[in-house]
Write a structure and sequence with these properties.
This protein is an alpha/beta fold and about 750 residues long. It folds into three domains: about 5-335, Jelly Rolls, CATH 2.60.120.330; about 345-550, no CATH class; about 570-725, Rossmann fold (3-Layer(aba) Sandwich), CATH 3.40.50. Helices cover about 35% and strands about 15% of the residues. The strands form six sheets. The chain has an eight-stranded mixed β-sheet. A hairpin with a 2-residue loop joins strand 9 and strand 10. Helix 5 crosses helix 8 (about 155-180). The longest helix is centred in the first third of the chain and has 24 residues, at about 155-180. The chain is globular, with a radius of gyration of 33 Å.
Length: about 750
């Protein structure tokens, strides 16, 4: 039968998305650079022999380290698997109209078992180029007649035999994994019944845009276990150690992977790993998957204390996944159910231990661990002096010595909120660990201001915001009388650490700038700063709220590196690494034959900042080559053969260049007699004039004067011109798709 009649109408249904792809869409990520590896292979015949315990340990270890493994000698004959493939081919070769419209296409099966594509796709990366029959297991096992008796001559016995065997296999594997956690297997026997599990017959038609469209978009499975039989075409990929790897097909094996529910039940011991299917431009691919699921009302809760995830029913989980797919276009999964420590309550508890009066203001009864009523705290003295953390105090002393502040000169007392007279006025006691011998005598110093930068991630965003803001005050910083020290605290993910830092910020009179993805952590920081009179700025919160309002969806509230989020390193990350490697190899005119492969080509005389500018641009994902201009040395021919819109010239004031070259010569240890004419003014001027003539001969090359410009400023000019010339738009912009 003509495959055009049996294939789903992908081209018609997703014409707009596919047209955008033809105009230059991004690859789906399945390029040749994805390494093919073999999954751990486990021989299940050992479960009935003396090697049973070792076999069980291998199953558990693979579930912990890979989340995927394959089993051989699993009890399903190669003949059954061959017939199963033949049945699938017959079923999927029926005309598309018949598959999608005929409710009785599978006799005795419920209507609506046929699925294709991705109805919610809003971008090409969300499209799955596949079709499937999604069939409850009970409908297969109870079917008394051939699957397609009125349409095909396919016998249902093969599918029934396969389904029955994998159902028993799933129970066996789940029992083994439960026993490894020290629990009996009755949970799965009672909750994962044939009526709750299902079989999916998959077909992935040939795709003309195989490098840009997924067969099945990246996802994790919303079940306990999945058992997969695939053909030898290949295409299954999974995330291992932060990178995508391709699974090498094994004709004798079934593939097992852990689902989200098992990860939650095991408290993160077993891993539900993100995986995907890549399309093939010429060959169709078949697979059959069995999903081991509980009933909708089954409650999933951790078998280990303390739990990572709050307990939820399977129905709640499915509803949350469905909601995320509708609103966001993709599944969030388990991170939605991570237990968020009640940070605000912890803040109140910790503060109340320091000052019950403040605890009363925060309206937290009994947080201090005392059963006394709150009014008893009135007996506290009106002025409570807070003792800073010893470790942070040591850091404070070290910073004071470096900045020139006398250790016996305490910072001005921190004023509390005047709007609440019930609050005690807080002042900060001198460091109890300080010693008279620590004092720095005979040094007149200015008051040094401190900025504390706090983040639950790397702190990069907050640090750059602070740096950008300080750039507005460079006229008065340091030598002009108002020195500032910034101090980074990254990876702050619990309330106690946060409180210690804010307490020390109050002691030093510091400004607190923070990026905390978790709204409750951000609220904790805001409340603690309010109580202790610390000036603070939330960098991330306002823009996150604005974007949430703009998109109409809620943020995850999780930092990128949060445990259980399962966010692999992106394709963009690996492109940046590739760009850096390329740029390093092309530095200073090396490999001129590769100039055509560069996105940007920089050229200029020595010490115009070509190398640092190249590396900076490479970290943004641009492949950069730089070519030095040296008086009397012929430029490589390839420079004049590349796309002229890629080339940028760099120039600089001759006096500044001479000073830079002299400093460079001193750094290299060259004496005046050995510096040649490299840094002599006459030579500098002649070389710049030589470069100027070259630029004049190539008037299309933009020439950027780097005098007095930071690398970031020059890079901004280069990128603005690069994208303006590339897009040829009336409103220059640097665009990026998320």
């Amino acid at each position: 039968m003509d495959s055009n009649l049996s294939d789903p109408p992908f081209h018609e249904a997703y014409k707009i998305l596919l047209d955008k792809t033809h105009q230059g869409g991004k690859e789906a990520g399945g390029g040749d650079d994805v390494e093919e590896r073999e999954l751990p292979v486990i021989d299940l015949s050992r479960l009935t022999g003396g090697a049973r315990e070792e076999c069980k340990r291998e199953i558990a270890r693979a579930s912990e380290e890979w989340g995927f493994f394959q089993v051989v000698k699993h009890g399903i004959s190669s003949e059954i698997l061959r017939k199963l493939r033949e049945e699938q081919e017959k079923v999927f070769k029926q005309p598309f109209d018949k598959k999608v419209k005929d409710d009785n296409f599978f006799n005795n099966f419920s209507a609506g078992t046929y699925r294709w594509g991705t109805p919610s796709a809003t971008s090409i990366r969300q499209l799955s180029w596949s079709e499937a029959f999604h069939i409850p297991l009970t409908h297969i096992l109870s079917s008394p007649t051939p699957i397609g008796s009125s349409h095909t001559d396919t016998d249902t016995a093969t599918t029934q035999q396969f389904a029955s065997t994998v159902s028993n296999l799933a129970q066996t594997l789940a029992s083994i994994l439960a026993e490894n956690m020290g629990h009996k297997s009755t949970f799965f026997e009672e909750n994962c019944l044939p009526s709750t599990c299902y079989l999916r017959l998959n077909r992935y038609p040939p795709c003309p845009m195989a490098s840009q469209v997924h067969g099945l978009m990246p996802h994790t499975d919303s079940d306990f276990l999945t058992i997969l039989h695939q053909d030898q075409v290949g295409g299954l990929q999974l995330v291992k150690d932060g990178k995508w790897i391709a699974v090498k097909p094994n004709p004798h094996a079934l593939i097992i992977n852990i689902g989200d529910l098992f990860q939650a039940w095991s408290n993160g011991v077993y891993k539900s790993v993100e995986h995907r299917v890549m399309t093939n431009p010429r060959v169709e691919r078949f697979s059959t998957a069995y999903f081991f699921c509980p009933s909708n009302d089954t409650v999933i809760e951790s078998c280990i204390e303390p739990p990572m995830y709050r307990k939820f029913s399977f129905m709640q989980y499915r509803q949350q996944v469905r909601q995320d797919v509708q609103n966001l276009g993709s599944k969030i999964g388990l991170p939605r159910f991570l237990i968020q420590t009640p940070h605000l309550r912890n803040v109140a508890m910790l503060i109340s231990q320091l000052s019950p009066k403040i605890g009363a203001v925060l309206n937290v009864r009994g947080c201090s661990g005392s059963n006394q009523p709150q009014q008893d705290s009135v007996s506290e003295p009106p002025n409570r002096r807070l003792k800073g953390s010893p470790q942070l105090n040591r850091w404070s002393r070290a910073r004071a010595i470096r900045s020139g502040r006398k250790l016996d000169r305490p910072n001005p007392p921190i004023q509390t909120l005047p709007s609440d007279p019930s609050l005690p006025s807080l002042s900060l006691s001198p460091d109890p660990d300080s010693d008279e011998n620590d004092r720095v005598e005979g040094v007149e110093v200015r008051v040094v201001k401190s900025i504390y930068i706090v983040s639950d991630g790397t702190g990069w965003t907050a640090e750059h915001c602070v740096t950008a803001a300080l750039g507005q005050f460079d006229y008065c910083l340091v030598d002009h009388g108002c020195p500032v020290n910034s101090h980074m605290f990254s990876g702050i993910d619990d309330a106690e650490k946060l409180l210690e830092i804010i307490k020390q910020a109050a002691k030093e009179g510091a400004l607190l700038v923070y990026t905390l993805a978790d709204p409750s952590m951000a609220a904790s920081a805001k409340q603690a700063c309010k109580v202790w009179g610390v000036s603070s700025t939330d960098v991330l919160g306002p823009i996150t709220e604005a974007i949430a309002s703009h998109l109409g969806v809620s943020p995850s509230g999780l930092p990128r590196g949060a445990f259980g989020r399962n966010v692999p390193l992106s394709d963009e990350y690996f492109r940046r690494i590739e760009a850096v490697e390329f740029t390093i190899k092309q530095d200073d005119g090396a490999c001129p034959q590769n100039l055509a492969k560069a996105d940007i080509v920089l050229t200029g005389v020595s010490r115009t900042g070509k190398t640092p500018l190249s590396i900076y641009l490479a970290q943004k994902g641009y492949k950069v080559a730089n070519v030095p201009i040296v008086k009397g040395v012929q430029m490589p021919r390839s420079l004049f053969e590349v796309d002229i819109h890629k080339v940028f010239g760099l120039t600089i004031n001759p006096v500044i260049l001479q000073n830079i070259r002299k400093a460079r010569a001193r750094t290299l240890g060259f004496g005046p007699e050995s510096r040649s004419n490299y840094s002599e003014m006459d030579y500098v001027r002649e070389e710049l004039e030589f470069a100027g003539r070259l630029f004049a001969e190539n008037p299309v090359w933009p020439v950027i004067d780097v005098t007095g410009k930071a690398i970031e400023e020059t890079a901004a000019v280069v990128l603005r011109l690069y994208h303006d010339r590339k897009q040829k738009c009336t409103m220059p912009r640097i665009s990026k798709r998320y």
